[in-house]
Amino acid sequence: MASSVLRTRGPGAFGGPPDFVALDPDNDEDLQIINLPDNVAVPNSGLIFLAEVSNEHNVITPFDKIGFRLPTTLYSSAYF
Predict the structure, then answer these.
(1) At residue 1, does pLDDT exceed 60?
(2) Is 15 within a domain?
(3) How far is Cα 23 from Cα 6, in angstroms, rounded to an integer?
(4) Is residue 23 part of a domain?
(5) Residue 75 resides in a domain
(6) CA dihedral of residues 40, 45, 46, 50 (deg, nearest 10)
(7) What distance in Å separates the CA atoms of residue 74 and residue 50, rounded to the nearest whole number?
């Protein structure tokens, strides 16, 4: 598992696994993202849905032997 690069005002309240659904997403201000990238425009009175995906893997190629280091954590994010 990897940590999110997005930060909220606070921990927020979530239900248990496996879904971790926010208990009060309409009123819980702790769930607001405080470091959203500048190029993401938030519409007035609108919502932005975001997804973060990360995956750790073991490097199986010998690239490190020739001075090329691959990251062990792959990360991507999307905003809708």
Answers:
(1) no
(2) no
(3) 19
(4) no
(5) yes
(6) 60
(7) 17
71 located within any domain: yes
Residue type at 43?
A: P
Percent of the chain with pLDDT strictly greater than 70: 91
- The model's pLDDT over 41-69, given as tens digits with 9 standing for 90+, comes to 777 777 777 787 877 777 777 777 888 87
Answer whether 0.85 is exceeded by the pTM: no
The token pair at 1 is: 């598992």
Nearest to 58 by CA among 37, 73, 44, 43: 73
Residue 63 domain boundaries: 43-79
| C-alpha span between 31 and 27 (Å, rounded) | 9
Q: What is the pLDDT of residue 3?
A: 67
What is the domain count for the chain?
Answer: 1
